[in-house]
Structures are given as C-alpha cells and as structure tokens.
Prior knowledge:
homodimer; 13% strand; six-stranded parallel beta sheet
Amino acid sequence: MxxxxxxxxxxxxxxxxxxxxxxxxxxxxxxxxxxxxxxxIKKNEVYDxxxxxxSGFEWYEFSGIEPNPHYETCMKAxxxxxxxxxxxLLSVGGGSVLDATKFIAAAVCFDDGDPGKILKGxxxxxxxxxxxxxxxxxxxxxMNNGAVITRAETQEKLSFGSSLTYPKFSILxxxxxxxxxxxxxxxxxxxxxxxxxxxxxxxYEGDSLLQDNMxxxxxxxxxxxxxxxxxxxxxxxxxxxxxWASTWALNGWIACGVPQDWATHMIGHExxxxxxxxxxxxxxxxxxxxxxxLKDQKGKKIKRLGKxxxxxxxxxxxxxxxxxxxxxxxxxxVKTHLSDYNLNDEAITKVTERLASRGWKLGECQNIxxxxxxxxxxxxx
Amino acid sequence: MxxxxxxxxxxxxxxxxxxxxxxxxxxxxxxxxxxxxxxxIKKNEVYDxxxxxxSGFEWYEFSGIEPNPHYETCMKAxxxxxxxxxxxLLSVGGGSVLDATKFIAAAVCFDDGDPGKILKGxxxxxxxxxxxxxxxxxxxxxMNNGAVITRAETQEKLSFGSSLTYPKFSILxxxxxxxxxxxxxxxxxxxxxxxxxxxxxxxYEGDSLLQDNMxxxxxxxxxxxxxxxxxxxxxxxxxxxxxWASTWALNGWIACGVPQDWATHMIGHExxxxxxxxxxxxxxxxxxxxxxxLKDQKGKKIKRLGKxxxxxxxxxxxxxxxxxxxxxxxxxxVKTHLSDYNLNDEAITKVTERLASRGWKLGECQNIxxxxxxxxxxxxx
Lengths: 381, 381
C-alpha cells in the first residue's frame, strides 16, 4: 500500500423529503445563487421544493448550464454573482451543473488574471461556499472536489480540483431519480462502474486488500441494482443503493494508497469534445479496449474482477471477464463500439493526433502512448 | 434504506514515516499538550519521532492515561491545560489515549458545571482542537467522534460523542504496530470485527446492499490479514491493511442508513467495569451468545455473513457461521467463554442486575432485556 493523505469533509444528507434541509445548511443571511441546467428540475417538482426551502433567503437563479458545461457559460454566472454580491451557491441538477458550480465558485474568487487559468493548473486560493441537490447518480461530483469543464472554442474538456471545491453539503433524495430517462440511468451506471475501474483495474494486486474489497463492494452493488433501476424505476431501495454506490465510486476513498489509471476517461473526453457523445458512451467504447490491449499488465486484477463480481473462473477468464463488462454496458442500454455512433477511422485519427499533440502518456504506468490509443480504438470500431 | 445525515471531516495521513507531518498539521504558534499512556511509545521510538516533529512548538506532556481511561485521570489533564493555557492536544497511543483526549478537549471548554455531565448527555458546545498518532488498530477512534470513559468510583463505562470531537488529523503509520504484543494485535482484530457486526448483523436484509457489501469488504479483510498479523508481525502490507480496515470498521460510513445493534458492546462494558477484562475479551464472549439467542431475528444476515465471509452454505449454515466467528476469535488468541477468565454465575448475576437497574433494553429492536442478557451469558459460561 502506498502512503496517502486524504480528508473528505462533505456532509451527505440522504433520503426522501430531505431537500427541505437546505434551509438548515445554508448560513442565515446568505445571498444565494441557484444554478441549474435545462429545466428538467421544473418538471419533477425538485425546483418547487428548492424554492420553498429558500424562502428565508435572498436568492437569484442562473439556468442553462449544459451537459459537459462550457467555460463560457460559467463566466456569465460569475458576472451575475459579482453584480448581485452573492456569497453562497446552490447547484441543483446532475454532475454537469455541479461541476460548473465548482468552477464558478473558484472563478469568482480568482485574482490572478483570466480564470481560464484554473483549467490549466492555476492555483485556487479561495472559492465561494456551495452546496447541491444532486438529481442524477453518475459522476460522484457530490462527494468530491473535482470537476470537468469544456472550452467550446478549442473543443477541449479540462479538469481541475482543489481542497476548496468540496461541496459544504450534498442532498441525495433517491425519489428525484424516479423520472430519469432510461438513457440517463444507464449512462450513470456505466460512468460509476468505470470510475471504480480507473482506481481498481491496475497492475496493483495483493497489497491493497481493503481497497480492492471495497471497490468490488461498490461494483457488485452497481451490477446488481443497475439493471433493476431500468426495470423498476420507482423502486426506492434500488434507486437509493444506485445513488449511494455512484457517490462512493468517486468520493476518493477507494483511490487512497493505490495507483490510478484514468486513461479510459482521458480518451473518452476527446470523443465527447470532438463528436458530442455522452460521457458514458465514450467510456463504454474505450474500457473494453483498454482491458484487452493491457491484459498482460492488468491481468491479475481482471481475473479478480471476473471472479469476485461476475463469478467467472477457469480458462479464458480474462477474455470472458472483458466480454462480461461489455455485456453489462450493453444491458444498461449503452452501446460499446464506435460504429454504433457512426464513428470510423477518422475519429481514431483525430483522437490519436490530439493526444499526441499534448504529449500525454496515459495509464497507471504512463505507457498508453498515442500508438496504444490507436490500437485500443481500432479494436472498438 | 433509512434516511441519514453524515459528515466525517477527519484528515487521514497514512503510511510509513508520516509522523513528521505533525509539524505541518498543528497550527503554527499553538501551545500543545502531548497525551499518552504508560510509556510503550518510548520503547518503539514513536515518542522520539513525535518530539522531533514538535520542535517548533511550545509543548507539554501528560502521561499515565490507562486502558479504559478514567474520568479522574482526564480531569488532571484538564487542570494542566488551564494552568499552561494550552490550545491544541496531540494524542499518541491507542484508542484509550485518544478517547481520553477527546474527553479532555471537551471538558476543558465545558461551561455548565461538572464536566462529568458530558458522560450523562451534557451538550458539548465547544472543544479544543486535537490530532493523533494512533499506535494500535482497534477502536476506530482515529476516524470517529465517539469515546468511552470509565468512572472509577462507580465502576461505570460511559460513552459520548459530538461533531466537535472529531480529530483534526490522524496519523496512521503501520510500522509502529510491528512491536505490538500478540495479545493487543488479537484484541484489536476482534474489536474491529465486532464493530462491523454491530452495524451489519441486524434484522435488516436486502435494503442496504451497498452498506452490506462494504461491511463484508471490511470483515473479509480482517479475517484475511488478522491471523497473518500474528504470524508475520513486521509484514508491512498486512499491518497496513489491518490498520486501515480497523479504522473503517468504525468511521461511521457503514452505519449510514441502517439500524444498529451495540448490545454486545453494552454487555461487554459491564464485564470490563466489574472485572477488568480487556474490552475485546468481553466482545469475544458475548457476540456468539447474542447470535445464538437472536438467531431468528438475525438469521438472514448471519447466513449472509457465513456465505460471503466464511464460505459457509447449506444445512446448519447459521450454527456453523456462529461457530466460525467463535473459532476466528480463538484463532486471534482471544478466549470466548466466561470460564476462560474464571468468571461464573456471579458475573452473570451482577451484569444482569446492573443492566436491569438502568432499565436498558438493548439491540436494534430494543428487545434484549435483562432476561435475554442472562440467557446470552449463561450460554457463554
């Protein structure tokens, strides 16, 4: 096990009818900006519950935050915050709204020129406090300090994080997920599954038993409740376990003391940036390719995944486990090949060239060069 | 799954050679009180490392904190803190030293008369900040806000907790556990195992899949590495996994959204208060009795434990699982019957009468009355 330091101060408020707790969590007298996306929260009554909870506060709203939120959109919220002298942010929506809110919170306080520098490693020294109501189990953003922002003008998805960008509180009410379209439920399960894989499916085997067991606990939960969430979208315990497992897939604790991969995400980000695929769609394409091309390096862990999560043992366990992962994605309604999205060799070339231009070597051993990326994507045509 | 609210802000600093990080975690200019126990930290060089890390601070020390720490001892530290105007506490030792430090931190700031009231439900409104170097994996105190204090004059073990009594940081260096006597290693494993059981082995089955899977992840780790820690006391990864799993056994996360039992602990506390048994010894006596007497109520969960952790299925799975738990405790060198400690019917009577005098009904269904306690302990003669 490797050395680590970790604190995760997020207060989780979990369960039905918990949105009203907003009123007890935001400091009295705060001027609040409610941030949200395209308006789905107005259809499922979440907006009404939030507005009711905010009744004692002076508050404003900023809507229109898109999936894969844009830097340019965030900067409009920054201007509004400065104009109204707002001092607390409340994100209501999925991971995209929350990621945008994290960036906005940091950008408002950024005093070293263009806040775009935050996306290129600029240090965050201060951020507005914020909380959230999460409406889509997927990204884990509700219990971590990271975020991914898109620069539309350059077609780049860029990430950042800081100890100052943890939510003060996150409200997780499983009932608000009852009305999610199947596509979003499926995407969320795939996203959470791959988050665990990025922290678990490495060359590391045998030295981090607790982390491995915990990672498998999360994945086993996702594999059990994911398909049920499609079949029984209003089953409370199914939705609750899915929501809580998605949070745990990326709250930082299973990453402690172990190497991490993240190549699937980095390659996937380029597919979204160029072609607008859903984030989870890109992951479902890339991960089976990474597992196949790196099966020597990751073989012991793939076998462990197969045995502990899918019940696969014996001959060809590695290949059958990779197939089981692909089948699981497909069972969640997320297609796993480039051709399913009408992408071809051009996409492979563009993604490979972009990564080459950055000079990135990906994966836990930094051995996923552009040539390896090309091999991975070619397998996924 | 039940509703819950939870935050755990403790910063964990984990790994070899991490004790020096104290210097970066205690605010500059603090006046520090180092609290510790009987001096074992002077034999294994932990004390020297701590003193070196404190070189930039004005600091004092308070030693002699006993296992099952006494209120009376804690109050001596409170007097010293007031005399020296100390504003940060640093606990170096096992769970007893840390529990005492939590009480001291709260008692110094208690402004509603006798600080003993804290042990009877008195509200903690303020506490001194504190950190710790934990030297014995067992209690989980390093990542929770609870503590147990003994009042010597009345032979009572009493617990308390507050959002103000979380450590600011906890340093977990597995190498400091290399020199633990086997008895303390064994006790620690049993303590951590039973912590998980108090949060897992209830009537609740099927609604809290993630919590169940995570509880099993922790227990599976303890069952794998516990015996190895006795065989290979200086194996780093074994000690690291044991230390980290013990922390997770009682950091609050697996208790979220599920009912909790704690009868084994409450009964065990009385055996320690009257007869001075090690805390883990009392748990090893009581738990198999609780499982046996409550096998109807807890049967589904006992079967799940048997299958997922001990690989037991089929006929008599419940009885064989109870036996497997008992055998595991014995394999850790912790005896499981009252007669092993020269206790007899008198002990059963005293414990039962004490619990009857308090009017407590224990367990997740509050159905463990004094009569049931008598039945449990009679089975464990």
